[in-house]
Specification:
- The radius of gyration is 15 Å and the shape is flat.
- Strands 1-2-3-4 form a 4-stranded antiparallel beta sheet, with no helix packed on it.
- The chain has one domain: Transcriptional Coactivator Pc4, Chain A (Transcriptional Co-activator pc4, Chain A, Roll), CATH 2.30.31.10.
- The longest helix has 20 residues.
- With about 70 residues, the chain is of the alpha+beta class.
- The chain is built from 1 helix and 4 strands; from the N terminus they run ββββα.
Length: about 70
């Protein structure tokens, strides 16, 4: 795992990894196992790095729409 970003007050982490020579970006829920280590769950998404900007743009659009609805 490289470049792990922990989202405060959640069990969600964003990180990049390489598997079989292919890079991936993960946004995933984690849990604490019996040994106390944080481990990834199946809950989350994995995308190719070339799709990152598309996902980031979609998240920003949703956030802006939520803010607009709250202000109405």
């Amino acid at each position: 795992m490289r470049h792990v970003i922990k989202i405060p007050d959640t069990n969600i982490r964003v990180y990049a990894s390489t598997f079989e020579g292919r890079s991936k970006i993960h946004l995933r829920h984690f849990y604490r196992n019996d040994e106390g280590e944080m481990m990834p769950t199946k809950k989350g998404i994995t995308i190719d790095p070339d799709r990152y900007q598309e996902l980031a743009d979609a998240i920003l659009k949703i956030g802006k729409a939520e803010v607009s609805e709250k202000q109405e």
